[in-house]
Amino acid sequence: MIKICDLEVSELFLFKEQSYAGRCNVVYNDHAVEFHELSDEQRDAFMRDVAKVGKAIANAFNPTKINYGAYADTLSHLHMHIVPKYVGGYGFGGVFEMNPQKTTLSDAEYAEVIEKIKAAL
Length: 121
Fold this sequence. Notes:
- By secondary structure, this protein is an alpha+beta fold.
- It contains two helices and five strands.
- It has helices spanning 40-61, 107-120, and strands at residues 2-6, 10-14, 24-28, 65-69, 79-85.
- β1 and β2 form a beta hairpin.
- α1 (40-61) crosses α2.
């Protein structure tokens, strides 16, 4: 992943595998694995970060739908996948693949995607 910026209680990263154009991860700053481990205030702040990123992705890339996924089976840290989906695009209409390993970008293309997200935040 490539770090984009710090948020209220999280860090935002661009997922290097970009089969889903604009895919990011919002990673909670403090150690937690499950939502129920957070206080109401911590959970609300984390979800504000997630919503802020979802809105930025929607504005920057105009996806048909955004999928959200909170997994930690192998990485024991609270984080949320923000996965834009596009009609006719990879995996539309199904559950997103965690790491399809189909699309990577050049350094310049990663920088362009990151700038679009930052401008929309």
